[in-house]
Amino acid sequence: MRKIFVLFAAAAALTTAACNTVSGVGRDASAAGQAVTGAAEDAKN
Asked: Signal peptide: which range, if any (predicted)?
């Protein structure tokens, strides 16, 4: 029973870490998109 609990806790930790990683990638992509948009606006003016 203890092994099952340890495996469940490890799986939960890995799942949480993966969600944080995906969230971070999304924020980075959004920031890059905003930078490109800003550069395009500057070039247009």
From this structure: 1-18
